[in-house]
Amino acid sequence: MAPGLYDGMTKVETPHTPGYHLTTDLTNQAIHWIQSEKSLTPDRPFFIYFAPGATHAPHQVAKEWIAKYKGQFDQGWDKLREQTLERQKKLGIVPADTKLAPKPAAIKDWDKLTADERTLFARQMEVFAGFGEQTDFEVGRLITAIEDLGQLDNTLIFYIAGDNGASAEGGMNGLFNEMTYFNGVAESVQDVLKHLDDLGGPDSFGHYAAGWAVAGDTPFMWTKQVAGSYGGTRNGMVISWPKRIKAGGGVRSQWHHVIDVAPTILEATGLPEPKSVDGTVQTPLQGVSMVYTFDNPKAPDKHTTQYFEIFGNRGIYHDGWLAQTVHKAPWEAKPRAALLDDKWELYNTRSDFSLIHDLAEANQPKLKEMQALFMSEATRNHVLPIDDRGIERINASLAGRPDLMAGRTSLTVFEGMIGLSENVFINTKNLSHSITAELEIPAGGANGVVIAQAGRFGGWSLYLKDGKPTYDYNYLGLEHFKVAAPEVLPPGKATIRYEFAYDGGGLGKGGTGTLLINGKKVAETRIDHTQCCAFSADEGTDVGTDNETNVTDDYKDGDNKFTGRIAKITIQVTPTDRASAAAATGAVQDGQQKKDDLTE
Amino acid sequence: MTSPARLTRGASLTLLAAVLVAAPLIVRAQTAKPPAKPPAHAPAKPPVKAPAKSATAGSVLDRTVLPIPEPKVPFITELDARKVTPPPRFEVKAPQGAPNVLIVLIDDMGFGQSSAFGGPVHMPTLDRLAAGGLRYNQFHTTALCSPTRSALLWGRNHHMNNFGSISETATAFPGQTGVRPASVAPLAEMLRLNGFPTAAFGKYHEAAAWEVSPSGPTDRWPTRSGFDKFYGFIGGEANQWLPASMTA
Fold this sequence. Notes:
- The complex is a heterodimer.
- Chain A contains 12 helices and 24 strands.
- Chain A is an alpha+beta fold.
- Mean pLDDT of chain A is about 95; it is low at about 580-600.
- In chain B, strands 5-6 form a two-stranded parallel sheet.
- Mean pLDDT of chain B is about 80; it is low at about 1-40 and about 40-60.
- Chain B has helices spanning about 5-30, 50-55, 125-130, 145-155, 185-190, and strands spanning about 65, 100-105, 135, 140, 200-205, 230-235.
- Chain B folds into 2 domains: about 5-85, no CATH class; about 140-235, no CATH class.
- The chains are: A alpha+beta, B alpha+beta.
- Chains A and B meet through strand 1, strand 2, helix 1, strand 3 and helix 3 of A and helix 2, strand 1, strand 2, helix 3 and strand 3 of B.
- Strand 3 of chain A pairs parallel with strand 2 of chain B, so a sheet runs across the interface.
């Protein structure tokens, strides 16, 4: 069994049951909690935050949900944008005269794609749509449970369809295994097509192509990360509170922001904003309550000024005007310009819902006024200074944040240490290193995992297979490099050691992997390349087991615990010498180049 | 032979009998001398119809300092409990009539994706809630996961929460450290200290990546950030088939 999730501060085992899906598990847990709470203390109102990982990547859902959308996206993203806009007009979600914003230049026209690309991309969107519908189905079970308890009438529900715009982080072609992106390795359309039916299943860790994200943000131009544009920040939101909101079915167009939810809840529950909490004087809440909109669709806006900033993308809204600049698109490796030289746009949002008439040239005084307002809002909200460094911010010491492993070249771990993320585990990437495990082998021999980092979508594992020490380097799920001892490890104490001699000369290069038993070399292999930047977005390092997905098919997930004893394991990395440091400088550029390559 | 277990049970029964005998006397003493003033913890008037009044004026409790300070209790000089009335029990309750609150937050879904907003993804639950509630078509987030979650859960702009981006790209600058300041109490903590049971399910992504290890510090983990109950993953994304629990 895999201890995956947390219950409180305790890791809990995730059932390896057929058909398990996280969102279903989360829903069951929430329903059980509500039922218990209302059973025992029906007079106490609850507060629940239900935030499934869905529909963030990896896009994963059972085949029957995907099948519901078969063929529904063959028309492509350009046509989907038009269809969506028509439906939005019919629903009264956008003004009747709204026009589609242009696509970003990097997004290809659907009809210029190859047949293979169209086949693959359409399937990606089928997976996403199925994933989205299943998520809503699970939310529906939660709502029904509240209704069955007689509680729906006096439950204030915020259903927020998105914590940001649709994600373009899948790049131009989307991804079968998201970890390839984090390591700057491009997947070819042809390679992924071979696994088309696996998309959305347990062997995939996928994301759709950026064209679908742009279509997903219709009628706007941009996507997640582009903080000045409504493509990045406008999200559908529904408020339900039958006891209080009588004019059901309406649309509200007052301008609001996610910071307005907390004041709304305080007003609705009859609570004052606290001045002090847990002994600390509080920074005042910055939003405004939305309760005033419940009865009056025409009530004048109360949230009139709001700054935006993410990764140097920035904007300022004030009284119907929006000034914004795109500093860097999600698929671009570098900023488009220095911060001072960014090109700003200006929109009158009251007459231009989809932001297509840039008034920056025509109304320079207004733009200057808005830019000045951005600077004052940015100053008083700790937005400044803006730090648009890219790859440097991935590195803790360059970025200037804590790193548990800072300055350490050696880490000793013990049995029972599991799920250690790359943020709290020693970094072996792009370095020569060794793993030394002191074991006790029982009579009859031992099997199972000694130590493993990450899993099916990239990682490595040191384990005993048929009693023989083995090391497998899983390169992004694409290639395995294995080195195994020829002999079974006999009962008694043993030291097994894996040594990796890194080629150097940049990031993600290869090296030689050597296996030693009690100090004696027993096997050696060539590892052609390694992962430069990340092993996993969710799985960590485990001692004595390989939790969640398995690194290698030499053992199964959920059934790979080490059957001997582990006294301790020491991971030692070779400190970077001057020559390597020079190489590392090149390596950063190399990494950037890889990202550039990926985005083209 | 009487077993030790039976002896113990016998002893508790005797104690219980004594309490039962005494109980009516205590009740009588209470009814004989009702408290002159309403108890200090008297719940507020229903907030739903008159929220502005109920927030402060209708409540005896001062809820602007949390936790709400307990009243000072007198030292009792009487020996016999039958002759005295206990002070009112101090208990924090949510304002009377306060609604349950549920926030559902979908991840990475665009404005034009759900059927309720014209999109191709059929979402009947959202459609149903919209039909009985209100659809907002000018609601905004911050354009990224953790920053939006911090603004939603804590009620301040993301940089004021030190979540200008995700903690995995945090820096040393104010606004970007990835560590929630103590002056930014989560909404869940405010509600919990006002008598709401609180729970979070799913993705958190509001604790700094380097603080999520067995060594902590756990101060900013969900159950120490206002949630009585948490079930989910603390990082940014999870395998839906075999979820892991760490940060990305």
